[in-house]
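A further point concerns the way the authors explain their paired sequence and structure data. For illustration, here is how one protein appears when written out as sequence plus structure tokens:
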Amino acid sequence: MTALDYRHVTEYNPAPPSDEMRRRGRKPKGERALTGAERQASYRQRQADNRTAPTRRLPRPIRQASRPQQWHGAVATLLRLQAKYAAWLDALPEALRDSSTGEALQAIVDLDLDELASIEPPRGFGRD
């Protein structure tokens, strides 16, 4: 055989059999290797021993609405409340309309909130 006949052959030199033969992986802590269940139990125990109290995350800051949005929201709330007070006044018995409750409800219903609703607040910073 020539050298060309061996060109695709990998040379294999087996290690001599001995007691010092290297094994792959960690050496066992005891006399024998741990079983899967024993390994899992020791892992869970290490995790439990190293566990710290969970850190509390701060709540995200709530995005504040712009001033025009706040204005429109406040006016919408006032209009909604005025409608509820008008319904309350309509449901109020005739005998109670002259009482302090009836007079307060009538004063709320008589307020002209349409002028407030028509106001468009400035947007500011040159965006007017």
